Structures
1.
Amino acid sequence: MSAVPEVAAFVEFLAKERNDSPHTVKAYGRDLADFVAFCGRYYGGRWSWAGVDRQAVRAWLGAQQQRGLARRSAARALSALRTFYRFLNATLGVEANPAKAARTPKLGRKLPVYLDRVEIDLLFHEAERRAAAGGFREARDLAMLELFYSTGIRLSELAGLNEQDIDLVSDQLKVRGKGKKERIVPVGKHAGRALRRYYRLRDVVLAATGQERRAVFVSGRGKRLTPRAVQLVVKRLFGALAERNLHVHSLRHTFATHLLDAGADLRAVQELLGHASLSTTQVYTHTSVERLKKVYHQAHPRA
């Protein structure tokens, strides 16, 4: 059986109707392609969506485990299959949903990796030193770092910023997040100052290369920076710190953790981060509690 039409229609539905992120759309499509290939082997020939049973889904999950697939990835794959069957029910009247009864792999709670205040100060001190001694690229890198920490935006959100998205008069930023949902976040004074300095140098680059003033962060040739290029910039900046497992998203985790440490309201942080669910934001409260427990055990004489 060729599953391409149904899967293709589902992927199009996710992208155009549900407005899911490109990452989610691609991952769900990949998961379903894997399931189709598995069913071809499992049933040894012709099969149908309505004929798939719970045993097949369990066998698929077991095969993923044998391949060493992470539990989080397996849970996402199962979610993709469940959502796909709901789509088949709504569009083709397929009543069965064999993925519904399958048990979701248990996920261990993983606390976000973030930087403490000393590390943040060291990181910015080095980035500011480079910007003062350097030129366009160093000023740009500092502006990106400031904006990440000031707003908590995601990598894809920063890379996709256009000039009209940033209002340095009212110090705010319009972000298009997951599901193409827009939110407004404030921009701190340090980030605003770094952006203004970078803009002056960027305009010189754009004038020399003939590129239009649209993308906020550009290369030395005036082209919009790709998410991968931004990752590499931040990785270089993290070189100022001791060896740690840090990545771009660590700055988002740091933004949220430091706000909550300072007494910010959880729902306000949820809105700033663009989380659809409050439970997603609550992981940062666990980070704060773990930090407080560490301080307690180090400082209390009878801890």
Note: The chain has 13 helices and three strands.
2.
Amino acid sequence: MRILLINQFIPPDEAPTARLLGDLKEHLETLDCSVTLLGASAGYQGGAKTGLARLVRDAKAHFNLLWKGLRLGPFDWIVCLTDPPGLPFTSAILARVKRARLAHWAMDVYPQVAVKLGALPDGLPSRLVAAAMRFGYRSSDPLVALDEDMKQVLETCGGTRIQVQPPWPPLPTAQSSPPLSDTQALDVQSSTFNVQSSTPISGSTATPRIWLYSGNLGRAHEYKDLLEAQRLLEASGAPWQLVFQGSGPCRNEAQALASQLGLKNCLWQPYAPSDQLLPSLLAADVLIASQKESLQGLLWPSKLALMTLTARPILWLGPTQGQIATDLVTASPLNGLFSPGHPEAIAHWLSSLPPRDSANLPTQESIQTHAKHLRTQGLNLWATHLLHSPK
């Protein structure tokens, strides 16, 4: 079987979507499929484009993908993700020309996301884009959503034959080591987050504790309440340090706000290398995921896939109703769910968290085993879609 996988970012790019397609290609090739990757550009971590520059980049990406795709093939299947925005429309045209079947794995729902974030006017432009996306959705069999909330949204957009498949977590590099003791955890924090375990952080006389936002800080994510909560923690002398690890369009704005609030225990770091991502998560006491409430069902933060395997408390700042919130409540009673606008509640929750119970935390080997299991489940489901679904 001949399969074409299309996305803006493909391996060896560090984008999460590039990793997913790389895994899928590798798995399908073990099943004697001929798989081709088609991407438009590299540089997921190289800085985001906005405004006219973003429109020009995306238009070029669509043209390049269509032109390159027409010169390839033939194919039995075309599988596309969502980037650049509107990719299902271009992929549907390519599938019609190639007489191939189309599958779309929706990483977000466009143009609704762009309208909610103010990147696309809610009027004639958005209606035209929505019509093009309906063509792409109706041409997709299967159309794959990330959770039940997204499935419901896609149904209103004209999608049929919708399956649900969240992204599997990245496969961590296992290290043969037992769970860290509290002393060892502090040593890891010291090397990972530049926290001196022998010296209290500013304004506190207690052992430092880390709450970590790792990954892209984009316009779809909430961050102001995190900084306000950190200000309250510092004012009370609570030994918490807020760490942002990654980049994104809102990073500079967040740094400016942190400076305006006079935060002393807020640390900014670049993306963690892939082999250091899991150790950095395990070195934190609390992990943060966020999403604007208006985007419920339009996105699913991919960072949750790995975070939920660490047994660290997760602070969710976003919609407190829906699939994500339900899953987090079910996963652990220690997880905290907060709608935006309540930094006092976040600060109180952090201050009330019990100390980390190192004896009951998973090892990196056990996390790798669980991640491998989820990855295998997801890949087998995709293989079923592509190799065994009736025409």
Note: The CA atoms of residues 6 and 238 lie 48 Å apart.
3.
Amino acid sequence: MKNFPTANQPLAGIEVIELSNMITCSLAAMTMAAQGANVIKVEPPLGGDQMRPLGTQKNGVSGFFHNCNRGKRSLAIDLKSEAGVEAVKKLAARADVLLHNYRPGVMDRIGLGSDVLREINPKLIYVAVSGFGTKGPMADLPAFDHVIQGLAGFTDLQAPENNKFDFIRTFLCDKVTAYTVCQAATAALLARATTSKGQHIDISMLHSCLAFMWPDGMMHRTLKDDDKIEMSPGSDYFQTINYTDGGVAVAPLKDSHWEALLPMLGYPELVGTGNFASIPQRMTNMSSISYVMKEPRLDIGVEKAMEVLAAADIPCAPCVKRDDIESIDQIKAIGALETYVTETLGELTVPTPPALFGGESTSQAEPSPLLGEHSRNILIELGWSDSSIDDLVDLGHVAITKL
């Protein structure tokens, strides 16, 4: 029975087919699942998604995998087999969205290219995710978050002082691309509601991440005319104040902010002087004035600093260690995390969906699938008999796993 959209499940009734390894399409599809979509994850029968064993795990399933795959069904089938190609074609015939992150040309070579599947189902939205794009000298190269961080300028962004390239130590590019994929897919669904036609969408990690960094990270390289007024790049504005008992993240902008901040740091004589005097002067010389936050003369501690900053209405927050995130009152207050129990992984904690449709919190306290956990049921839905499925299992073309 088909579900219909509601205010807090706007994608109910939408079927998404995900063929991917690692984060990008997995997280995009899980985001759509949180909004009501029915997601079938198609994985290789041997090993499945490469995320499955990576990191802290239980019963062969890692927290890393779980965090990108909640609420899906898993079909473990070999796409190099006739049965695998036939199964995906049958899934595509009834699907609304198909996501994959194979290298350019791979899906065409195995007979599952965009033209083939959209001829079967003209309403299908086919999203092909690549690392470097479909053209150019790097189009066929393997891509991973780390290498995209390098080419998109993030490793330079992290090295303003010692000129040594460094990473943002999270899979930033994978996750930025995932949200780009999710937004594009849902926009295409909206267009289909008017045109009654699906479409092909290409999205590269490189392009997504350049677009993500550009508004602030490249603000100083956007205007090209010679009469432009030079200002500091956005990266110069990110400073923390470190005390012996911890750190404070702070974003002072107004004159009144600096009038309170400088005395707190032990530099009262700098209020209203030189490069500290006004917003234009500070924004033009941010790298040269940030030393006051890097080297506070007064070690007043985090609690007292927060009191002073809050009283002056300066945007601020304590710097929290990752292991302490679950205990933070503000995070508890907004219901950003939920703890629940699954049969495979036991008790676990994950984020709740951040989009509060209708202003109401929702939950995604669902299990992530075992490899091929739903293979039999999905293949039966597509017309295979139990005996033919058993034959595919014997041939190694299909995997079925139960706890």
Note: The chain is about 35% helix and 15% strand.
4.
Amino acid sequence: MSLRSFMDDIAPKFEKGGKLEWLYPAYEAIDTALYTPGKVTGGAAHVRDGLDLKRIMMTVWFCAWIPALAGSYVLGANANEAMQAAGITAVEGWRGIFLNGLISFNPNNVFDCLIHGLAYFLPLYVVVFAAGIAFEIWFASVRGHEVNEGFFVTSILFTLTLPPSIPLWMAAVGIIFGVVIGKEVFGGTGKNFLNPALTGRAFLYFAYPASMSGDAVWLAVDGVTQATPLGNAAVGLEYGVEWSQAFIGAIPGSIGETSTLAILVAAIILCLTRIASYRVMLGTLVGMAATATLFNLIPSTNPMFTMSWSWHLVLGGFAFGAVFMATDPVSAAMTNTGRWLYGILIGFMCVLIRVVNPAFPEGMMLAILFGNLFAPLIDHFVVQSNIKRRMARG
């Protein structure tokens, strides 16, 4: 019996009147993840292109694996290098059961580095996905609607914004907060005005700051600390890396945010497939570059005033946020002109937060959430401007 036939045979049990009717959202989520949805939009007034929501989300999910794999490799390489320098030859805890004896923790071995990094990323992702999808299915069951594929994207993006050393239970709490408070309380996907992944990360940042920032959370090695280049810059220290190293991703940081090169590859795919808006991405870059250049011209004892736009691009979560978070089709601006303004606002706010408030050197997370709040207002004024211009033409 084929998988398609099996799913069709058990479908009546989950449909209305079946014994497992209350589990229909879970069945529907699995079925549409494996196959094209049985019901698609048919009205001409609603059809924009040939993509359905599942294909859009699956494309973004696939692209997110590019920085995920690059970040996992970098994480493993940095960990192996730190272990070698400290004379550590084995990993403690439950991860050691799987890693000790499988790899030699050689920082020059691609396999060793990738497996070591994945040993931190994959458990985080599994826990985040399981905790988040449980609440997605719960809300879907209560409301009687289908589970939306958007959570596939939310779960991996949220995981990629986390430091590798964060406790698993904390990651679960964060994604539950993001799903419930950032999305479901407003009615679910399509009705949320904040990015759910960033909402969950913001909650963790302010609720558990010791596990989300500082020098001890970026390396997957107990007892070994290492500051991020952006953290060094905020206190007036040398970055510690060359620009090319930061661009490739050979720096400590959140799992998916380190390699600007990998993020750029994903951005090209998303733009070519028209999944993400290039206007938002370029607008964010323009806003960041203009603001950073302006601060460079202002004399100040604050070391962040001298950071060029090219360094802002490769440090912290700017690139990842501009490509994957700011372009969220639900919480971003909808009009073409609005997307440019929305992106510029995010780029401006990111640099403003980084430079003016050195105690919070990252900035991109709050900048995007700030942009989310203003996106409807930006679209409103753009639409009103278009209406007035057309009325003036008669």
Note: Residues 274 and 379 are 20 Å apart (CA to CA).
